Amino acid sequence: MSLDALRESLPDYAKDIRLNLGTLAAESVLSDQQKHGTFLASALASRNAGVIRAVDAWAGAALSPEARNAAKAAAAIMAMNNVYYRATHLMAAKDYATMPAKLRMNVIGAPGVDKLDFELWALAVSAINGCGMCLDAHEKVVRKGGLSAEQVQAALRIAAAVHAAAAVLDGEEALAA
Questions:
Q1: Which of 86, 114, 144, 166 could potentially form a cystine with 131 if both were Cys, beta carbons 3.0 to 4.6 Å apart?
Q2: Is 159 a catalytic residue?
Q3: In this predicted model, what pLDDT tens digit does every residue of 40-55 receive, in sequence order?
Q4: Domain that holds residue 76
Q5: Which one of the listed residues 40, 41, 131, 168 is annotated catalytic?
Q6: Which pTM was predicted?
């Protein structure tokens, strides 16, 4: 399935999601690598097989093997980090937030692509996973690295639309069962 096929598979009540996916696919404020990597990392974070396959067919073809791997790595590492850091942030006992995580996360330091692109993808995944602590940390890095508020917003918009498509398809599958 392609991105167009994914868009067309969305029911009429999700027309806004369909339109947003089309608009975001043509987004020009991000580089092609940033945009396609954000789509792929967001699709993986969405956990919907159809969305993952459709986005990978579209975005994966536009990414180098290294960038495709890095987008996948961003989704993977943030699946772990978002749970850990969200928990330490939400717990009443604040001593956990001061303890070292003791979790391996070497890919963040050496992602195999431009570090800003990887950080942007990690930010998008953190938005989907709802980790405010990680959102703040990655936003600070990308802004310090020169990305604009508009570029950050574009990544957040992509994450929101991709996640919404996954939620719609998950809901439709549940209703059909």
A1: 86
A2: no
A3: 999 999 999 999 999 9
A4: 3-176
A5: 131
A6: 0.96
